[in-house]
Amino acid sequence: MNNPKDDPRKDEGDKGGQYSSDGEGASTDSGGRRGPSGWPDMQGEGNRDAAREYNESQREFVQSGQVDEAARDAEPRTDEERREMERAEREGRSHARK
């Protein structure tokens, strides 16, 4: 990083860059927050923030009472669609760890 313009820690005048903290650029795994070093606060393999947000959204969905409706909407509409779904499930299961 020889050019100061390439430093992802800079904020002044940076609108929409990869490491921008103004919310307009590409986000980091941690929502654009920065760690003590000034670099984006990356969490590595397990993103606790994303997991928490996902779990909260799933809990809200279940509590909304829309699960039965969504399950009905996901049912196959034709015999052909049912067979395709069953084939896809078998294929997926064949790749699962045993």
Written account of the structure:
The protein starts with 47 loop residues before the first helix and ends with a helix. The protein has 3 helices and no strands. The protein has one domain (4-94). It is mostly helical and 98 residues long. The protein has helices spanning 48-63, 67-74, 79-94.
Which terms summarize this structure?
98 residues, mainly alpha
What topology emerges from the helices and strands here?
Blueprint: H1 48-63, H2 67-74, H3 79-94
Could you provide a short overview of the structure?
This protein has 98 residues and is mainly α. Helices cover 41% and strands 0% of the residues.
Which stretches are poorly predicted, pLDDT < 50 over at least 5 residues? Answer: 19-30
The helical percent reads: 40-55%
Enumerate how many helices there are, as a single number: 3
The secondary-structure element order is HHH
Average pLDDT value?
77
Rg over alpha carbons: 22 Å
Kindly state the number of beta strands: 0
**What is the total domain count?**
1
Approximate strand percentage: under 5%
Q: What general outline do the C-alpha atoms trace? A: elongated
Largest sheet: none
N→C terminal distance = 46 Å
Helix/strand-derived category reads mainly alpha
